[in-house]
Structures are given as C-alpha cells and as structure tokens.
Amino acid sequence: MQLIDSHVHLNFEVFQQDIELLQARWQQAGVTHLIHSCVEPKEFKSIQSLADRFPELSFAVGLHPLDVDKWQDTSSREIEQLAKSDPRVVAIGETGLDYYKATNKEKQQEVFIAQLDIAARLNKPLIIHCREAAQDLYNIIKEWSKQGNKPTGVMHCWGGTPEETEWFLDLGFYISFSGVVTFKNAKQVQESAKIVPAEKLLIETDCPFLAPVPHRGKRNEPAYVKYVAEFIADLRQEKLETLGSQTTANAIALFGLGKVRS
Length: 262
Prior knowledge:
Low-confidence stretches: none
Shape: globular
Largest sheet: 8 strands, parallel
Mean pLDDT: 96
Helix content: 40-55%
Radius of gyration: 17 Å
C-alpha cells in the first residue's frame, strides 16, 4: 500500500540528527511521497537541500499567516521567482488566516490575497492554513474568484465544522486531516472527515506537530501518517487499502506529481 504525507516540516531542527532513520521508517510504512510545506521564503534553500537528498520530496513556497510581519514589498516577487526556479515546487503556501489571538487580521488578509494571485499566475495549488477564520477565508476566496480565477488547493490540518467543510468543498478545495482526527475529543473533526467525498480527501502529519494516537504528545514524523489513514478508514467504514489508494491518487492529481516513486 502506498501513502502520501501531504504536509511535512522536515527542515526543523528537531529532525536534523536522525533524518535518515526517519526516511527508513516512512518507507517501511509505505509512504512513497511527501509534500514539504514552507513557513517563509527564507526556508527555501533548506527545503530544497532536503529534496536533493530525498527524491520522494516535493515542496511549496509561501508565507504562513503567523509570519505576515515579515512580508515586504518584494515578498510577492520573491515567492513567485522561487516557485518558478525549481520544478519540484508544486504549491504556494502555506498561506491562509490564523485569527487565534490575532491583532493583524487585515494584514493577514492582504498577504493571503497576494499569494492567491501568485498561485493563479503560476497555475499552482494553494496549501491553506485556517484557524478560527473560516468565514473570512471563505468570503475572501469567493470574492476573489469573481475575477474569473478558480483557485485550487487544500485546507490542511483541517479542524472546521462539517458546515465549514462544505463551504470549501463547494469552492473545489481538497480537505486534509492530520493526527488531530485521532484525538478522543476531536468529534467535530471526525464528523467532518466522514463527509468529505473520497476524491477530495488527503492525509498528512504536519510533523513535527500533532502526532496521532498512539504517539500523541511525542515528536511527529511521516511514518505516522499511516495511523491517520487507519483511523479515517475505520471512521468512514472503508478498507485501509482503498483509502490509501484514493488519497494517494488525490495528492498526485492536486500537486501534479506524476508517477510516484515506489
């Protein structure tokens, strides 16, 4: 069975001492491809270096909503140029809105719209982070789409209600679930995972964060995406192999991966 971890952060310091062992474990777990997200453009070289070492790694470039204070007049051009510079860049992000304790909502919206524009110009999907901001995010994308652009992408590490899930499905977005879905008290996330159409479902770790049960509270890693797949398959009353094949096909389609390395 093949799995794709659609959201990782392997360039973090916590992985530097044993990353080859991580690779052996993700390969043993059936993970054949990974999408490395980007918190800010200055990470690009470190992510690129990881992709040089691990052929199963594709990646994104963008600016996270919690880092919008780093946005400059040249940031849009920088992100676009970096995205054009390497064919392994398959997405723009992660971008989005994070209103948890936020005092800079207008700035976040401005930076998100700028990255929407980049994705449209380059015909690349978006990796979207959304925390306590679903209504504004939906409204922005819906209004922006009136320009004639149809955005594509994924709502990553999704934690919204079933109603909010439907909003983004209606916009054509994929929905990705992390280890949060395995948490006992994550009833809202579990209900959302039940209603996502098979052809719009993705799985991820968001490692090193949010390790799934039975590793909750520990450092997360790509091999653990199998626990997410197992839990969602059980939740949806599907065979694990069916869910694995479908989410792999979905990631290939969204990110234009072509033939996944076995």
